[in-house]
Write a structure and sequence with these properties.
Strand content: under 5%
Shape: globular
Pfam families: BPD_transp_2
Protein name: Branched-chain amino acid ABC transporter permease
Keywords: Cell membrane, Membrane, Transmembrane, Transmembrane helix
Subcellular location: Cell membrane
Strand order of the largest sheet: 1-2
Number of strands: 2
InterPro entries: ABC_transp_permease, LivM-like
Structural class: mainly alpha
Length: 349
């Protein structure tokens, strides 16, 4: 592996993350619209889930169409523990994480022995089973009537009772998720994931414990979804099973593919594009198609977008963003050199 490729895979620079963090911190100071902040909160939550999906799909090569189930387990666990048992929010989140990890461990052992579309169908089945439980287990979930009165999140004495507070919390957790994913994929474990993705037979022949690593990344990505679900439940204060149906799992998959499943930033880019385009389409479609129901047309739009991306940009939008960023930095460097050259010429004619 040459040095340039090595530096791309094992980049230790945190400049990009620090710059993005600074931009995120400044957004509420310049944006007063609660609607825009709520959209960014949703982008942050889906970024966490999509980043976990990227680790599972893009780096370990395992497909999941059942992550809405883990998202729902986190949401209902937090809701039940805080409302029915009267315990603190952090306990609800931890119960969700623990329960999700146990479920992912139990279902992961048999399903991760499958590969390709067989694995995708098996995880889709898990999502459908969980959705049925959410609907029918009315004593716990409230059934289709939903779960009301979920309190605002309270962590370490801080009550997150406003959009701005939730915004900072969500993006703090999303960035921690990205940092953790970055460290994992650049570690020995990450190399094992890539080996499994490239060829399970070859990885097995060099001593990689395939089942162990596949199970680990599956559980970790499920925990990402669970944490996002817990925070979402406290944010909206009401949940019902329709929020965690199988279409949601497909949406997570689309976000991951759009952003670039083999990129650390792919989850963020895919989530942002998916959510923001979705909001724009809600306004545009009724004007163009003369209908109040835009959901079906959104499915068509993102379906077409997915096909086009898979044909012309199979690695997703992340590589294009990286190229654009590099061009911008190169242009800035060139402009600085020209400015210094012009200044030197004036001082020493």
């Amino acid at each position: 592996m040459n040095n340039s490729l090595l530096s791309q895979v094992y980049s230790r620079s945190v400049k990009g993350i620090l710059l993005f963090t600074l931009i995120l911190m400044l957004v509420p100071a310049f944006v007063s619209s609660s609607y825009f902040i709520s959209v960014l909160i949703l982008v942050g939550l889906y970024t966490l889930i999509s980043t976990g999906m990227n680790m599972l799909m893009g780096f370990a090569g395992q497909i999941s169409l059942g992550h809405a189930a883990f998202y729902g387990v986190g949401a209902y666990s937090s809701a039940y523990v805080t409302v029915k048992l009267g315990m603190p929010s952090i306990v609800g989140i931890l119960v969700g994480v623990l329960l999700t990890a146990i479920i992912a461990f139990i279902v992961g052992i048999p399903t991760l022995k499958l590969t390709g579309h067989y694995l995708a169908l098996a995880t889709l089945g898990i999502g459908m089973i969980a959705f049925t439980f959410f609907k029918q287990w009315k004593d716990i979930t409230g059934g289709l009537n939903g779960f009301f009165g979920i309190p605002a999140l309270n962590l370490f004495g801080i009550e997150f009772d406003s959009e701005v507070k939730f915004y900072y919390l969500v993006w703090l957790i999303a960035l921690l998720g990205i940092l953790l994913t970055r460290n994992v994929v650049q570690s020995r474990v990450g190399r094992a994931f890539r080996a499994i993705h490239s060829s399970e037979i070859a990885a097995n022949s060099i001593g990689v414990n395939i089942q162990k690593y596949k199970l680990q990344v599956f559980i970790l990505s499920a925990v990402y979804a669970s944490i996002a679900g817990s925070i979402y439940a406290h944010y909206v204060s009401f949940i019902n099973p329709m929020l965690f149906e199988s279409k949601m799992s497909i949406d997570f998959l689309i976000m991951s593919v759009i952003g670039g499943s083999g990129s650390i930033w792919g989850g963020l880019i895919g989530s942002a594009v998916f959510i923001i385009l979705g909001e724009v389409l809600k306004d545009v479609i009724p004007m163009v198609m003369h209908t109040q129901s835009s959901d079906e047309f959104q499915i068509v739009f993102f379906g077409v977008m997915l096909v086009v991306l898979l044909i012309y940009m199979p690695e997703g939008l992340a590589p294009a963003f990286v190229k654009l960023r590099n061009k911008a930095f190169n242009w800035l460097k060139l402009s600085r050199r020209r400015s210094r050259g012009a200044a030197d010429s004036m001082e020493n004619p």
